[in-house]
From TrEMBL:
PANTHER family: DMT FAMILY PROTEIN (PTHR38482:SF1). Keywords: Membrane, Transmembrane, Transmembrane helix. InterPro entries: DUF486 (IPR007437). The chain crosses the membrane at residues 6-25, 37-58, 78-96, 103-120. This is DMT family protein. It comes from the Bacteria. It holds the Pfam family DMT_6.
Length: 122
């Protein structure tokens, strides 16, 4: 399978993961969800996370070099982490308007890009 398919599946997975993990923090702003108990919030998050796994598992299975993919396990993990932080950053800036992207965040991302470089270096 081509590497870009794995990356697209990882992006989709992380969109659902971010919604499951952090989207519920804005549920109080939605009238239908504002009075739900924590257990219902957990159930809804699990429901969203199901779709995360529907993308994550194929991404890792198809992307893994021993299954004919392009990435070793280390590369899959660091790709997933960088994609997670990228999706999370976009989500945070769009949904949580009171959060700001600061210089220390940028520096941290630069270090992550360096991590990707070193993990992929032969």
């Amino acid at each position: 399978m081509k590497p870009h398919y794995t990356i697209m599946l990882l992006i989709m997975s992380n969109i659902f993961m971010t919604l499951a993990w952090y989207g519920h923090l804005k549920f109080s702003k939605i009238p239908a969800f504002s009075s739900l108990s924590l257990i219902w919030i957990i159930v809804i998050s699990w429901g969203i996370a199901f779709f995360e796994y529907c993308f994550q598992v194929p991404a890792n299975r198809y992307g893994f070099v021993e299954n004919g993919g392009a990435f070793n396990i280390w590369q899959l993990k660091v790709l997933q982490e960088v994609i997670t932080l990228s999706v999370f950053s976009i989500f945070t800036l769009l949904v949580f308007k009171n959060e700001t992207f600061r210089l220390n965040h940028l520096i941290g991302f630069i270090f992550l890009i360096l991590a990707v470089y070193f993990i992929f270096k032969e």
